[in-house]
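Fold these two proteins, one after the other.
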Amino acid sequence: MKRRDFLKAGLVSAALPYPALSAATTKRANDVVALGPTGVKVTRLAMGTGTSGFGGSSNQTRQLGVRGIADLFQFGFDEGVRFWDSADQYGSHPHLKAALERVPREKVAILSKTHASTEAEMRADLDRFRKEIGTDYLDIVLLHAMMDPNWPAKKQGAMAVLSEAQQKGIVKTHGTSCHTIGALRTAARTPWVEVDLARINAHGILMDADPA
């Protein structure tokens, strides 16, 4: 498939609000939509950096390096895809920083993910993430890889700090990425979760459970 046809394919994130999913209009990857109750503006398609991401690296960071990923982000930006996904676990923050040297910060939405549980851990992560990326604020911060259905009890400290950071404008919206159906069900009934990254791969590759 040619890249321009790919961008016109209208891939849709599972996190988009239901009216956006149900609308009878043509959807494109570079459409700008409002995500979550705070209305963070993102494109339908995000550029990811975390294939096989663990231990501070990923397929993208290992194979493309800082300049290669910055080139990838700039290419996507030029085609109208302006939603960038990262995580501490992927080690991709410096790559985003390099890309931000080429494009205006206010023109892209940046998502990152944290394993922090306590207040102290979350405060340290927010300070470090912003320095590593070279930004004063983050559009979306998610608690990364929730698996235990009882995750809110274990993440109270981090959740409180993210709520405070949202009030200060350091974070625009917050939520979770879920790696089990139990954790996802908890997220669905937890008002604190404004955005959820729900993993699904029809082929069942690198998943935490059967697609069904």
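Now the second one:
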Amino acid sequence: MSQERTPCVSIIMPSYRVSQYIGEAVESALAQTFKDFEIVVVNDGSPDTPELERVLAPYMDRIVYIKQENRGCSGARNTAIRAARGRYLALLDPDDIWEPNYLEVQVGMLERHPSVDLVYPNATIFGDLPDSGRLFMDLSPSKGEVTFESLVSQKCNVMISVTARRDALIRAGLFDESLLSAEDFDMWLRLVHSGGRISYHRQPLVRYRRRRGSLSSDPAWMCRNVLKVFQKMEETLDLSPREREAVARQRVRFRALLSLYEGKKAFFKGEVKAALENLTRANEFFKSGKLRLACFLLRASPQLLLRAYHIRDRFIIGADTKY
């Protein structure tokens, strides 16, 4: 990690409102069994900068610390990538935690497979949402080869804590700073469409934090941004007929998902009419008996439906799923 030599790996950490978590993330990076790395932390105009810098103070001689005006996660990652000196880039979100052998396994795979540009592992989910304790690939599976079509169709889902060849991400054009979310999804699509190769394995090397209040925990927000990515793919890439058809199918599906999540959000806000309109629109695609019943109860007795939801959360799921 000496500044006088070129490290093998640059660990990329964009930081915004993460002062309560980032210490654990940095400690997990420093505890790696593979030692040839640098840590690049970019403070993306964070409003909690005094606290962030207090937490980072013990590590300042072991990290590269950059401050910039707020440009979003993509802008922070791009700044870190441009400053990085390693031939490999390892993305570590500052509210996640690596297992000690993360870099050893990830770098080993890239070293053994020179044709692979990016590799992602499995992860163990933790935090304050109901899926805590489950594996990422149980909820977001990866099956078969990672291609443009398998990414679009979600047969393969890339876990954000990837390790990649720096030149591959640069060739793909870095992260799109116009996207406020799903910027990673956009990057993976562009990477494979330009001829890059993505691989994966099922060893859980990351503790992936999911928490209430984060943008990624809002499914409606995520759907809207995924739809923006699909529109961008159609407008900017030279898609084959099969690829264009795959994008069109998923746009229909994500519009239905957006209606579903907007309907649930309206329901919990007491906006019965908006909830009914959205859920009815969603069920034109899903054709679900449960959704049909929910729409019937919304018309007949919204309070009965709300009580049923509370009972399900308390006695069947054992967690609050109204987010």
